[in-house]
Amino acid sequence: xxxxxxxxxxxxxxxxxxxxxxxxxxxxxxxxxxxxxxxxxxxxxxxxxxxxxxxxxxxxxxxxxxxxxxxxxxxxxxxxxxxxxxxxxxxxxxxxxxxxxxxxxxxxxxxxxxxxxxxxxxxxxxxxxxxxxxxxxxxxxxxxxxxx
Length: 148
Prior knowledge:
Immunoglobulin-like, three-stranded antiparallel beta sheet
């Protein structure tokens, strides 16, 4: 004798699988958003090294030189920017506003290889360039020692 089991609710399994799939992915979505929050509200940075020093390139279009502040306290270099939006009363009707300026703050640890007195910054075409020169390494002079 053959026994056949009937599934009276064929769509219940599909719905459970969809709900389980969404529920299992839900924490990963939250985790991704919370881990990337700093990237979303910060500015991108490139750090380059050359023979004479380091260069930090910080992309911040729309800012002006006066919107930046660079502080050096002990071994922490902090670069921050704040753009204040001015509300203008115009007769034009704003249909869509997709961009806005946000303040940011980035902190970098510098070591004893950096000459803190020679740090310079320039803002050109939306990119803030911060030059961190290396300290000059004094090599001991080779000398001949006289034997007595």
